[in-house]
């Protein structure tokens, strides 16, 4: 039952950030929109289908004036009448594709047709950056993808990656909002970034951008990537740094507004209530967990040992909850896995055998995707750990090679959920059971 408890707690967190319900609630007070000539809807993200469905339910009595397009992963579906879901990338491939560029171009064109009596909604959620590509002039999509891969591999933060992506784009960093000339543009956001910075989520296509071309150049230089990126990228960013290309907008009209409707904190709150209902004492470590995945796992191992042996900071049965999102710095070669699978593998390795007898460890991406895999993350207990040993799986070797997926696949520890339809970073549920 311990694995069942961990999964029940995790799913309680995920269901709390149902995008359709959150959007519907947010639009319940927007009755003045019903007098608009047209209501244009654009957006991108893994929660795009649910958010669009929420819009159509909220605006059911004026649906004939609603139209729009939202970029989503292929295979995403919702029973919509007026908003078109555009498949912008294949499932499981979290990188920009030409299909995404085509959808982004449609959004720019649609907003540019807005008149003074039109209003617009922009729906943004996790994965929006990859689903909303529109490379800057002179830069190909492949070149932009190459830059993102380099930044990801060296362990750059999402803030740093998005700063660079904004300055290689025609739509990010407030530039989508610049195309709109209507009465009001409201952006509704389900956040997948620590601290909910609206200029970072989906690379902030409808909000002012505080970063500059100079910042983007410095990030590439800081990580030693300046001479590794394509020459066209260096030339474009250098031109921007010299002021030869207009920077992203640093202010936008007051008619352009945004609102966070869902985030990691909401998921953690629901997970905490579920854990308490199941009889666990709860240590909620919050939604601001960042850093190298293995380092965070090492800290969690210390907490678990303290609970097991000293009953501090709380007594078993106990549940430790962590939100946020960690990073993995890859070496020159790596296997297959994701930050959540690697977190559980590292955590198991840091625990003593006697501690493993009392724990169930689960870490999963709330979107149902962990890195370039079909798993949401991993779950481990003594049975799974023993099976891995029986199969001769070497956890140290798998960890060193960032090959956690194959370790958990063979031992039965993969957390397979499919796409959840939402995305608010990661949710980790660490259970420490009382002595039998």
From TrEMBL:
Gene3D superfamilies, A to Z: Glycerate kinase, MOFRL-like N-terminal domain, MOFRL domain
Q: Where is the MOFRL-associated domain?
A: 6-238
Keywords (alphabetical) are: ATP-binding, Kinase, Nucleotide-binding, Transferase
Cite the MOFRL domain residue spans from the record. 318-426
List the GO cellular component terms.
cytoplasm
Respond yes or no to whether keyword Chloroplast is given for this record: no
Enumerate the GO terms in the molecular function aspect: ATP binding; glycerate kinase activity
Q: Which InterPro entries match?
A: GK-like_C_sf, GK_N_sf, MOFRL, MOFRL_assoc_dom, MOFRL_protein
Superkingdom to which the source organism belongs? Bacteria
Pfam families hit by this protein: DUF4147, MOFRL
Full protein name: DUF4147 domain-containing protein
